[in-house]
């Protein structure tokens, strides 16, 4: 549903009053000074969520800045509008050839269509459904079709220096388990070692199944400590995962997700490894290719969009956000639910968002997006534009879904440890890159009024802006 002229007028009235808002609260000003962040390096805006009054605070609110992961608010709200909260991604599976006595005499095809949550357990369910068709052996190949998305090259270490973090993976039409390996360490003190479980199994990769224990014992006064550093993991060889150190005996069971060293071969290795572990046999290979003209044997459906955006916003998952962004420009589905010809591209998705912004938000200050996740140095948006989006969302049918996707201060997500505010009083998206710190969302004040708050710092000391932003949030909450 498009915004009414009345709502646009109310929002415009708020924006026109920005210049009349008061100066910075003293506690915010003092915190910025302690952080050595000048006033002209931050943009701050506090406005009524319903757009019924002049801004309570405005500082450089019309200046476009880099919002880091706060840009995910644009991607997720646009998706709620354009796709609907019940939207699901479909991953069709095709069988080519006859099935006799448990053997498929032909190829099995899996076509990715952008599902951002095709994790290991759901891949297992997909292959289990293949076996449910009476297929235990495949005389041909398993073919993976990744053609629905353009190929996006990403340097996983370019922004935060963390190439092993799964959220830094590149988007992929057939994104399996974030191209990562989940390692679970289970200490066995009687044997003086820790068992290591890997999920999913990767074909052709040697995985060290145990590591010795070292250090204190469970129940000792010393805490677990940095068990990852003590393991001295070696991920440099894509065909082997090993540990040159030891697992700390004072630690209980730990789970460590890491991005696989060779992401281009991950999908092939994961499907081959899991099929073999499930007792399936394959006479051919797992390879990439295109699906011929076939009707699908079945489809795997993702969780609904309303659930997916909770993972994106609460945990700031970059690759899931990029999957969603590319989905906005996927070709339409035919009557059978299959994608028509065409490829989703970032450029096409940017065009989709620009048109949507003009039609739904109703202004010409559309954000400059790169990949939809905020993991970019090119992104730009003003606090004024971001607040307008949040006000529009607050008065829309999808407000509950968007707000429920945001981290709750002191409760969950990226704000789990931010306990300075009353529990449940703030639903906020955070963002950080080198030289950038940001927070934006909804804050419930003591007066019962809900505010939209936007605070962004672009400065070499931006990491130190958190106390100033906390002071701003506390100032908003204390409004009575």
Short description:
The protein is an alpha/beta fold and 480 residues long.
Would you write up a description of this structure?
By secondary structure, the protein is of the alpha/beta class. It has 3 domains: 5-85 and 340-477, Beta-lactamase (3-Layer(aba) Sandwich), CATH 3.40.710.10; 90-109 and 123-145 and 268-297, D-tyrosyl-trna(Tyr) Deacylase, Chain: A, CATH 3.50.80.20; 166-264, no CATH class. The protein contains 12 helices and 20 strands. Strands 3, 4, 5, 6, 15, 16 and 17 form a 7-stranded mixed beta sheet that branches. Strands 2-1-20-19-18 form a 5-stranded antiparallel beta sheet, sandwiched between helices. Helix 2 (26-34) runs antiparallel to helix 12 (466-477) and helix 3 (72-83) packs antiparallel against helix 7. The longest helix is centred in the C-terminal third of the chain and has 16 residues, at 346-361. The protein is globular, with a radius of gyration of 25 Å.
């Amino acid at each position: 549903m498009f915004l009414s002229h009345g709502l646009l007028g109310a929002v415009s009235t708020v924006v026109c009053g920005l210049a009349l808002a008061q100066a910075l609260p003293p506690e915010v000003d003092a915190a910025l000074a302690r952080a050595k962040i000048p006033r002209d390096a931050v943009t701050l805006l506090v406005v009524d969520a319903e757009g019924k009054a002049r801004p309570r605070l405005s500082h450089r609110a019309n200046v476009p800045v880099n919002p880091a992961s706060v840009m995910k608010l644009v991607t997720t709200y646009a998706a709620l509008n354009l796709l609907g909260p019940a939207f699901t991604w479909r991953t069709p599976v095709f069988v080519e050839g006859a099935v006799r006595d448990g053997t498929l005499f032909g190829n099995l095809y899996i076509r990715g269509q952008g599902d951002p949550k095709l994790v290991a357990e759901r891949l297992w369910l997909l292959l289990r459904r293949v076996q449910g068709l009476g297929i235990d052996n495949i005389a041909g190949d398993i073919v993976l079709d990744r053609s629905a998305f353009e190929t996006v090259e990403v340097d996983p270490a370019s922004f935060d220096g963390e190439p092993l973090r799964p959220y830094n993976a590149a988007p992929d039409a057939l994104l399996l388990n974030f191209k990562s390996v989940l390692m679970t360490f289970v200490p066995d003190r009687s044997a003086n070692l820790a068992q290591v479980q890997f999920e999913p199994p990767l074909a052709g990769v040697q995985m060290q199944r145990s590591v010795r224990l070292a250090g204190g014992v469970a129940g000792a006064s010393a805490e677990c400590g940095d068990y990852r550093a003590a393991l001295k993991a070696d991920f440099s060889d894509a065909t082997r995962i090993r540990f040159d150190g030891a697992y700390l005996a004072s630690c209980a069971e730990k789970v460590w997700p890491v991005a696989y060293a060779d992401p281009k071969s991950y999908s092939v290795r994961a499907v081959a490894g899991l099929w073999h572990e499930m007792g399936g046999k394959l006479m051919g290979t797992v390879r990439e290719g295109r699906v011929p003209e076939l009707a699908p044997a079945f489809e795997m459906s993702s969780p609904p969009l309303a659930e997916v955006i909770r993972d994106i916003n609460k945990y700031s998952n970059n690759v899931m956000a990029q999957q969603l962004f590319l989905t906005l420009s996927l070709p339409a589905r035919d009557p059978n639910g299959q994608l028509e010809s065409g490829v989703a591209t970032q450029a096409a998705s940017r065009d989709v968002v620009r048109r949507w912004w003009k039609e739904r938000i109703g202004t010409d200050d559309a954000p400059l997006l790169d990949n939809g996740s905020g993991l970019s140095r090119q992104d730009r948006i003003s606090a004024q534009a971001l607040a307008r989006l949040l006000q529009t969302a607050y008065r829309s049918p999808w407000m509950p879904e968007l707000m429920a996707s945001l981290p709750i201060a002191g409760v969950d997500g990226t704000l789990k440890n931010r306990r300075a505010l009353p529990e449940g009083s703030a639903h906020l998206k955070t963002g950080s890159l080198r030289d950038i710190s940001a927070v934006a969302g909804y804050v419930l004040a003591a007066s019962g009024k809900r505010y939209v708050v936007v605070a962004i710092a672009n400065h070499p000391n931006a990491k130190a802006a958190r106390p100033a932003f906390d002071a701003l949030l506390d100032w908003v909450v204390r409004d009575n």
